[in-house]
Write a structure and sequence with these properties.
Length: 346
Amino acid sequence: MQFTAAQIAALIQGTVDGNPDTAVNSFGKIEIATEGQLSFLANPKYEAYIYQTKASIVIVQSNFQPSQPIQSCLVRVNDPYSAFATLLRTYEQMQAAQLKGIEQPVHIAATAKVDQEVYVGAFAYIGENASVGKGSKIHNHVSIGRNVVIGERVVLHPHVVIYNDCVIGNDVVIHAGSIIGSDGFGFAPQADGSYQKVPQMGNVVIEDQVEIGANTAIDRATIGSTIIKKGVKLDNLIQIAHNAQIGENTVIAAQTGISGSTHIGKGVMVGGQVGFAGHIKVADGTKITAQSGITKSVNQPNSILNGTPAQEHQKSLRNLAAIRNLSQLEQRVAELEQKLKEIQNK
């Protein structure tokens, strides 16, 4: 597919600075882009590359003033990074639109309802009474259990598994290998030291516009639903336990683990490898740095937390600074004790 500078400007509400007929057919990083590629400049520290790049078109800030001649055609916008993301998304959607029909072999249960405008890849499985909405893409080796509801324009990448009774909203993307609705980790200790499994009878509900990274697991509820609210973005390799709830537009980075019945609020930002204890609540707008441990509820909205157990960020930094100075403090205390002893002897 090929686009001109004029077409690109129209898509991202930009203005062309150069030849509007300049054409591109792929994307490239500004450092290594070649002729026929589109790139962008959002971070000023990369400005030096714009004077040597071979990219045919570069998206730049509307007020960008070059200090040297530039060979590339420029498209000026208010936010180059967002504009470039819009173009990438448009290109991705155009490619996805080429996927149509039902490949063979697949298994689609007689009672399943699959819209005519759905793509189903080879070796996919769609169970009894499941439904798949208009415009959805079910890639190869996806397994959809019985009574599952899949909304419109959903993309399930290869080897995604959706267990029985789960509900997926509209415009959801789930990347390869993720498991939705596996059993929660529920075992009752017995008098003889063994554990009896507690049946997990609930489901998982994923609302609209959620994106879930590769190899993430979201457990079904014991009773009721594990809920991922609208607009949530989950990275790869995340574990969300039974009956947890993630609030709207929360983002969570890789290798985070969320224990059962934990409720995370709206607009929360969670760094990588964060651990959450069970049965706690995290207030809206909380920001949690990587490798923190959240052991109790966070009641103050818009808090910034760090460390294990997590503390207010600035307090945590002060404590870390004090720990680094412990050896010096120990030496000073020893010196003071010696002086005090000398005074007492006199």
